[in-house]
Amino acid sequence: MAIADQSILDHLEPIAKLSAGRKKELAALCFTEKVNKDIDPTRMNVAKAAQALYLLKGDLSLHYYDDKKVTIHGGTEAAQYPVNADQKVAKTVALTEIEILRIDMDLLDIMMTWDQLSSAGKPPKEQPKAIKFAQNAQPTVAEAHPRSTDEWLNDTEVFSAFNLQSGVFSRLPAANIEAMFKRMTTVKVAAGQVVIQQGGQGDYYYLIQNGIALVSR
């Protein structure tokens, strides 16, 4: 297996609709596999998890429950879509040695949901260089340019795939995500100021936009 090249994802649907940041992150989580002739790649799902399977190279035969057979060739328009998307497909058979790509459906669904919320996957608008410099030099100046909902949603470091699947945001209904971000505000914090006190009342959720925080117990 080899880590997937991001350029591959640009030609697969619906992955091609993801933002550049999400595609870069997804590429690092995907692997391409080579499958020998006469093998059914859909039966090689060891994890038994819902997966989208794409044919990248070679010829693959789709066998339907009504005995119909269709051959898909890697690199064609038909191969841009998951070969196992149609529930009427009973099995698949590699007619040649093939190369495939598997993607966890839950992971893809989460990424698509967040990108759709952030202006249909459009990247955030470029900030003026002067503001960027000010943020790096003096974090509190960032208050002059509070992050928009789109900028937060497109932050693949704070909201990485791992955090979205297992963190606190994994329990948040998709319908409430955008509403939550619209209610977020930028708060100026001075050096040395205590933001959260252990044992205190926890009525807010904090994200570090700029600067460094020390956590102690």
Brief overview:
This protein is α+β, with helices and mostly antiparallel strands. The chain contains 7 helices and 7 strands. It folds into 2 domains: 105 residues, Jelly Rolls (Sandwich), CATH 2.60.120.10; 94 residues, no CATH class.
Structural notes for this entry:
This protein has about 220 residues and is of the alpha+beta class. The protein has two domains: about 1-105, Jelly Rolls, CATH 2.60.120; about 125-215, no CATH class. About 25% of the residues lie in helices and about 20% in strands. The protein has helices at about 5-10, 20-25, 105-115, 130-135, 150-155, 160-165, 175-180; strands at about 1-5, 30-35, 50-55, 60-65, 70-75, 90-95, 100-105. It has a four-stranded antiparallel sheet. The protein is elongated and about 70 Å long. Mean pLDDT is about 80; it is low at about 120-145.
